[in-house]
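An example makes the point: we print one protein in full, the chain in one-letter code, the fold tokenised, without further comment:
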Amino acid sequence: MAFLEGPSPKQAEIIKQELGEGTGDLERGVRDLQSMCAASPYLPQPEIVDTNILELFVRGCRMDQERARKKFEAFCIGRARSRDLYEFRSISEPPLSNVLKFLDIAPLPKLTDEGHRVTIFRVRPNYPEGFSDIAAVVRAILLVSDARMHDETLIAGDIFIWEGSNIRSSFVARIAAAANAVRRAIHLAHAAYPQRLRQIHVVGAPPLMASSLNFIRSCVNEKIRNRYYFHQKVEDLYEHLPVRILPAEWGGEEVSFDVIMKKWTQRVDELRDFLQDLSELSNVTEEPQLDSDIYGTVGAFRKLEID
């Protein structure tokens, strides 16, 4: 059963005001996306697309229907063009289950006061060297992102926390070896997912990660680069996030991160059919005329407007 909590009624009203959502706007936006699907040979028929997903795109694009169209089209067709990133749809079976011995990936149950959803990526201590496969990590992160889309409702944006104090020197070489997969995943995240990335916190990253972090930041525009925050210890997060939403290991009031991970892994398994259907949203046999920047090289997203 889903455990992501939505906004309070007061938060919901504030978020809607920020998004510019008026009466009937959400329904009109959903109908517009459904009409686009019905008219396109490359997109799924509207009756097989979960309405909740369409609502996320409309709201994630702040009621801008043209932008929602482009993002949803990229969301569907990107899966056909990058099938290798969506090959495996279970996080409790190999090869993705091996990723969880290297990296914990879990959205936190409660929203911040501003209505932001926080997702933690925590490198585990004493991880087996062979399980720090970066291409598999990319697939696992995209899988969790897809699963979230089933349960997420109205949020004001996303906050990511990367805790890397246990990273080893071999990680740098692994990032370099999987640069193509990392680059494509970052591009998909920005151009094809309905997220509004508000903050990225990097905690405890050793100096050896500098080159990897510079590479990752080079894949996004300047606005997003300016939303990175670097901290020596998790306590530094208290200046940015309420303690009530953080896991117990980090001095927070939420349950332990291990409990959150167990619940979230179970939830991803429960959504296996949904996740498999998502990976098959588009079967492109011809080349639709899309903005090539969506699938371009490093820096191609710098002209994409991101909130």
Q: What stands out?
A: The radius of gyration is 19 Å.
